[in-house]
Write a structure and sequence with these properties.
The protein contains seven helices and no strands. The chain has 153 residues and is mostly helical. The chain has one domain. Helix 4 packs across helix 5. The termini are far apart.
């Protein structure tokens, strides 16, 4: 039962099992979900946003490790909770508007795929922490780019 729950959570409610680009699908679903939360409440409370990132990251470390162990794969492609946390981090402390959502999605995916220094090295940590850490840093990089662009404009 625990294994099934871990896989469901680590795959972001089975989004990770969609063929093609599961990480991109999870990032897109996260961005859309983020927009829906904003539309329902008409605001995003930064402290709750940060708390959500921390909670999802903690749960991600545990469930991605369980999913990795049960599948026998060090970093299974169906584990996309790391993309959920990273995408949310990319949008942290930014105004919710079309530009930030679109650029945040693109910037996060680019950093997640490209993995500039030292993102790739974080994968070597292994287990649940390594699975989560590289995407969290990609989210930080994307956020820094967006913070710069928002201040520039």
């Amino acid at each position: 039962m625990r294994q099934r729950i871990s896989i469901t959570i680590a795959s972001a409610l089975h989004i990770g099992f969609i063929r093609g680009a599961p990480g991109t699908y999870a990032s897109l679903a996260t961005t859309i979900g983020y927009l829906l939360v904003f539309m329902i409440s008409w605001r995003i409370i930064p402290a709750l946003h940060l708390s959500a990132v921390c909670l999802i990251s903690l749960i991600g470390v545990i469930t991605s490790y369980d999913a990795s162990r049960s599948s026998g794969i060090e970093d299974p492609s169906f584990v996309v909770i790391d993309e959920v946390a990273g995408q949310l981090l990319a949008l942290l402390f930014l105004p919710v508007n079309a530009h930030n959502l679109i650029l945040g999605f693109i910037a996060f995916r680019c950093f997640d795929i490209w993995k500039p220094f030292p993102i790739r090295r974080l994968e070597a940590i292994g287990k649940g922490v390594g699975i989560m850490a590289d995407d969290l840093l990609a989210g930080v990089y994307a956020n820094l780019v967006l913070q710069f662009l928002n201040r520039l404009i």
